[in-house]
Structures are given as structure tokens and as C-alpha cells.
Amino acid sequence: MPPKLSRAEARTQTMKAIMDAGRSQLATDGAAALSLRSVAREVGIVSSAVYRYLDSRDDLLTRLIIDAYNSLGDAVDEAILTSAKEAPADRWVNAGQAVRSWAAANPHEYALVFGSPVPGYAAPADTVIPGTRVPFALVTIVQDAYLAGDLVVTPREDTVASTSQLHEDLKLLRGVVDFAGDTDIVLDVLNAWTQMFGLVSFEIFMQTRDVVSENESLFEAATRRMAHHIGLR
Amino acid sequence: MPPKLSRAEARTQTMKAIMDAGRSQLATDGAAALSLRSVAREVGIVSSAVYRYLDSRDDLLTRLIIDAYNSLGDAVDEAILTSAKEAPADRWVNAGQAVRSWAAANPHEYALVFGSPVPGYAAPADTVIPGTRVPFALVTIVQDAYLAGDLVVTPREDTVASTSQLHEDLKLLRGVVDFAGDTDIVLDVLNAWTQMFGLVSFEIFMQTRDVVSENESLFEAATRRMAHHIGLR
DNA sequence: AAAAGTCAAGAGCACTGCTCTCGATTTATC
DNA sequence: GATAAATCGAGAGCAGTGCTCTTGACTTTT
Hints:
DNA-binding
């Protein structure tokens, strides 16, 4: 006979079991194959009972998305922190490798947060803040370099016109991430981040159409080049 | 009384109706909501009859993927051809805008080919060739500029080591796309294409987390900057 | 001890992909 | 031209899905 659990204890325990089962099924079969019934089976509970813990399948999806964002965010944060003493460009490359490694280790989680949205599912507001952790973390590298005077600002032939709406947007964005440099740099960082995302997505989604045998080398070369464009040395 | 159709005529006609219904459902509801039963309903046929024309749901998906690739490829080709007389950088930006416009007009098709793969579905070999049309088309811009002597080659601090595996891969890739320039340029083009893909994906997949109010301006600024990095002026 | 709240279970609805059989019709063969 | 072969749409059926509702047992609060 198991020790008698209080109502609250039993509840948190079952909730954890459900989330664990969801995570494991997401990892093995992917988001679209995730079903509440199979989660219920794995937990050893009947399907309708799951609805006492989750509002819907989308609810489970949302929780898994937030989990994934935070897991990735932790990985990138750690890479940035542990390389605090290194050269800015190396820190940037390290952060990129952290993203890539995490995605390779958790492809379904990556697809869940960065892939095509699950149809009929609209990500609620809860997911937006953890979703910004990676770009925020990347900016800190640039910010650190800027404050240390290590950021190389090369003259540009085409700066964003100060009268344009884009310029205003970039200024706003700069304020959000608390960056002090020029808006052109903000654009470069935005570019570098989208490029990093694109590179990882290509590799994860189209199993690297084998255009290149060593993806890690390509990734390093690509991220290093973007770091150079930003002005990180 | 309708004119009597031969077996072959009726078959091709029904096949077309099925594909049209599939395309329309893909456009309105997305890939995951695409069901053979609803396609059958739209065509006015019973669900099992569809299996006389398609092997499976995946079969339909594959055909739609090839369709989408070719539709996008046509759009980009046209943008590149009609801007043949313009400056290389402008041609590049135009091609990028073609990709972006097509994606905005056909978000579900874009998600189908560039988003997270449908679980349990492995894209067959038929899809790989149409899938390379866009990067191939982009290379022609660089190739044209290179042959015309318009490609600005700026000295790089970090060229890909000629002894590395990556260098070999890039050389191979250069041969495939029949480009004559340096492998470093191949890397830049690869970077630019990934970045373009990343930018469009961000906009399509995460309904542009409203970091910027005018996505078109951002897209133009970003693609123009990448064109500059390649050496297109 | 009684009332209120919480829980798992099960049945049921509408939907999915896919298979199989059954007549009807068209095509190909003799 | 008759007959055999191939093709086709229809329908039933299987196993699965998300989700809702009711029922009965249990725990907590009053």
C-alpha cells in the first residue's frame, strides 16, 4: 500500500508525470504526433482524466513551447557567460554553436518553436517573452564589446536613412534591448540573428540536403563572418 | 446530358479536380489540416475513390510540394529575368522581394516546403531538384555580375583555409552551380541565401513578432546589405 | 457528520487515414 | 461482335484522434 498522498501532492505529481510524458513523446515523435490519449496511456491514466490537468492539447503544446524556449535560452546564456573573457567574435560563434547544438539535440523542440506553426494553434502571449531570450542574449555580446570599446565600426555606404520608418523601428528596438550603439549595428545584429536561425533551420528541417559534408565547419565559418560584419573581433 | 468522356479523359479531369481541391485546401487551412476525405468531398467523390488516383496522403503532399517549389521558382526566375539590365545589387534585392512576396501570398505553401517537416513524412527524391531552383537562380545573379566584371571582391581577413574540408565542399558546390569565382564568394552567397530564408521565415512563421512595423523596408535593407557583402553593387 | 469540492473512469460524437469488397462500366482481346 | 480484363465509384469497416458529458468514488472543508 502506497503512502497516502494529500490531494495537492498527488496533483502536482500527476501533473509532472503528464508533462514528462508530453516531453518524451514530443522528443520521439514530434509535435503533430503528440496526442493527449497517448500521453494518458503513458501516464497510466484514462484520456478524459488528463483534462483535469490541461485545458486542451493546445495547452500542453504551449507549456512545451515555453519549456523549449527556456531550455534553449539556458543553453545560450551559459555559452555566453562561460566565454565572458574571450574575444567578442569567439563569444558570438560560441553562442551560435550553442543554438545549433541544442537544435541538433532537440530537433522536435526546435521545430515546435521555430518551425511552421501548428495549424489552428495560435501561440498565446505567455510564449513571447521566453521566445526573445536568444536574441536578447546575443545582443549582450555586442553590448559588452561596445562598452569595452572593442566594437569595430566600419563606415557603411548605405546607412538607414534617419527619416525612414525603419530607422524609427530600429531605434525602438535598440531601446528595448538597451543597446547604446548605432541603429545600423542593430540592423546588422538582426541580420546576423536571422541568418543564424536560417542556417540552423536549414540543417534541422531539410536534414542538410548534403550540400556540405561538415555542417559544423560551415556553421562556424558563417557565424564568424556575420560576427565580423557586426564589428566583433 | 454531358458529352461522353473517354476513360482517360475522365481520369485526367478527376485528377486535376483532386489537385485543385488539394491546393485550395492547403491554401486556406494549411498542410496539417489537409485531409483526403475533405478533398474527396470537395471534388464530389467518395473518400475511397481518391485512392484510385493517389497512393496516400503523403503522395498528395509530395505533389503539392513540387507544385509549390515550381511556383516559387517561376516567381524568382521572372524577377531575375525582367531585371536583367539593372544593377546586380538591385537584381538581388528584386529576387529577394520575389521570394518574400510569394511567401506572403502563399504562406501555407511556404510553410510546407520550408517549415518543419510534416511528421512521419519523408520528402522523396522528386522534391530535391525543384527545391534547388531558388538558390540556383540567385547564383546566376552573382555569376552574371562576375562575368561582367561587376563583382567587387574585397579582401577578407578570414578566407576559408584551402586545406579544410569545408573548402572542398564549397569547391564542389561551386562546380554544381557552375560558378567561376572564389570559394569565399560561394560561402557569402550561401550565407545570403540562408539569411534571406531566415528573414522570410521569421516573417511568415511568427507573424512578425511586431519588432518592426514595416517588414518590407527591413527586408530590403537586409537583402541589400547581404548583396553588398557578396560584392554586388 | 453533512456539504462541497475534486478526481478517474467510461461512453459517446465527429473526425481522420486507409483497406477491402461489391457491383457497374469501360477498355482490350479473341 | 462477344467475352475477358481492367478500371472505377460506392459503401462498410478498422483503428486512431480531440473533446464533452455523466457517473460514482473519494477527499477536504464546514
